[in-house]
Amino acid sequence: MASVAEMYDVGWEEMRDKLRKWREDNCRNSEQIVDVGEELISEHASKLGDDIWIIYEQVMIAALDCSRDDLALTCLQELRKQFPDSHRVKRLTGMRLEALERYDEANKHYDAILQDDPTNTAARKRKISILKAQGKSTEAIRELNEYLEQFVGDQEAWHELSELYINEHDYGKAAFCLEELMMINPHNHLYCEQYAEVKYTQGGLENLELSRKYFAQALRLNNRNMRALFGLYMSASHIAASPKVSAKVKKDNMKYAAWAATQINRAYKLAGRGTKENKCSMKTVEEMLESMQITMS
Amino acid sequence: MGEVELSCRAYVKMYLHACLFPRCSINGLLLSSSPTGGTVCVTDCVPLLHSHLPLAPITQLALTQVDVWCSQTQQRIVGYYQANACVSDNSPTPCALKIADKIAEQFDNAVLLMLDGSKMSPDYRVPPIVMYERKDSRWILKDKHTIMLRQWEETRAIASQMIESGDHTLLVDFDSHLDDITKDWTNQKLNTKIEELASPANGNI
Is A239 inside any structural domain? Predict the structure, then answer.
């Protein structure tokens, strides 16, 4: 089988840099990380210098994600040798136990870390992940709420909590989490758009109007967000069709919907230039927009 | 209740969808190009989402678009499939029931299909699926003997082969389409590949 270096015609430095980029972007492309990382470690370990330790950690986690316990253990053993008393490595040991579904043992490891260092956020998050893996959503939500009382600025935790609430259909609380995220990170178009989706799902005129506003805000932050564009179209159309709104509100929303429809059509026309398959989506969207117009007016 | 037949194309794409996003809950729609009455023949599927399944706007959008596409191509939506992120839990979620209910409003013999993640490894010889049908406004487990997959061994082999060669990365679900609208959620290219692998000219797999 061809090596990664052969297949992509790259040298070890490029492989190392790619791994760094994936670390910085927090990508979960575990299969790729395993392919590149395994080769880098086995053939170029001596050239990596001190980088090798963080690469061992990255590859180990990716290996767990791909059920490659052999590779994970190799990496873990190297890390244990180099950093025998490290909490960070202890957490990795715990993660391997989680991957093997030995949750009680994993919890013991994390509890030991927390005995030593009660502020260790990584261990707390792993314990919450175990609850999630076991399907114990209510407990996971409770623990995560407690965690966030202490660590109020932790975006990752707020986002995780919003996902848990969405899966429990508790849209009000999910919206609250997304509001916190938007406060911490007002320029993130994804949070605006997700908030708008939650509001839309909650339903009712007030929530629909809020959802339209936040879809619009998401578009202001990123005018290529197709979900926001479609969301704007749908929320505005639904408001315009509601019997409870004034003539002015109806007129305004029909204008917003019409604008969104034009943008959608334009985007699909641009995308449709080229392959025959894309023309199919374009036609579908055109027809859909037309049919929704008929029902809305 | 009635018999349901699952085509190779529908099964393989569902399977590839689940394998493409092993860490997420995924869902999609089951389609039929056969006329109604008698056995429900699921001839195709459209993979929909791999994130935020319970949220309404994108699901509504996808349902509308697939509906329009179906009327353009003489197909109809006859069912819904889902695979949960948590491998040990293959029961239909409230959102699965809701969407399946909506489909049942338009098609009496609608089916709800759950993929059983724990049975998807290569050494399992039976289809990793659990099907439900609607009776008295409730979704009940369907008798296994009313579910047919013609040429199951061949279908299973095609699915495994495509995973091996990385073809599952070619699959486009509606979520991915919204990330890049040049991608085709009807998956014509993948359909062609499946056809090629299934064609008798290919000999034994």
Answer: yes
B115 close to B81: Cβ distance less than 8 angstroms:
yes
A271 touches chain B (CB under 8 A): yes
Contacts of A292 in chain B (CB under 8 A): 64
CATH number at residue A266: 1.25.40
Residue A88 placed within a domain: no
Q: Does A231 touch chain B (CB under 8 A)?
A: yes
Q: Is A214 inside any structural domain?
A: yes
Cα–Cα distance for residue pair A208/A226, rounded to 1 Å? 18
Nearest to B68 among A201, A277, A291 (CB): A291
Q: Which of A186, A201, A227 is the last residue of a domain?
A: A186
Contact of A165 with chain B, judged by CB distance below 8 Å, is answered with: no
Contact list in B for residue A290 (CB cut-off 8 A) is none
> Between chain A and chain B, how many beta carbons pairs sit less than 8 Å apart?
84
- Residue A50 backbone dihedrals phi, psi, to 5 degrees: -75, -15
Predicted complex ipTM: 0.92
Domain count, chain A: 2
Query: In terms of domains, do A252 and A208 share one?
Result: yes
- Domain span at residue A143? 135-186
Structure tokens belonging to residue B134: 């609607």
A93 Cβ contact list (under 8 Å, min separation 6): A76, A80, A109
pLDDT digits (tens, 9 = 90+) for A127-151: 999 999 998 999 999 999 999 999 9
pLDDT tens per residue across span A43-80: 888 888 899 999 999 999 999 999 999 999 999 999 99
Phi then psi for residue B114, to 5 deg, are -110, 130
| 8 Å CB contact between B31 and B16 | no
A246 & A202 share domain: yes
Q: Among residues A151, A168, A186, which one ends one of the domains?
A: A186
Give the whole-angstrom CA distance, residue B40 versus residue B31: 10
Residue A274 pLDDT more than 70?
A: no
In a domain, A236, yes or no: yes
Q: What is the pTM of this model?
A: 0.91
Q: State the DSSP string of chain B.
A: ---EEE-HHHHHHHHHHHHH-TTS-EEEEEEE-SPSSSSEEE-EEEEEESS-TT-HHHHHHHHHHHHHHHHHTT-EEEEEEEE-SSTT--SPPHHHHHHHHHHHHH-TT-EEEEE-GGG-STT--S--EEEEEEETTEEEEPPGGGEE-TTHHHHHHHHHHHHHTTGGGG---HHHHHH-TTS-TT-HHHHHHHHHHHSGGG---
Q: Chain B: nearest CA to A14, how far in angstroms?
A: 23
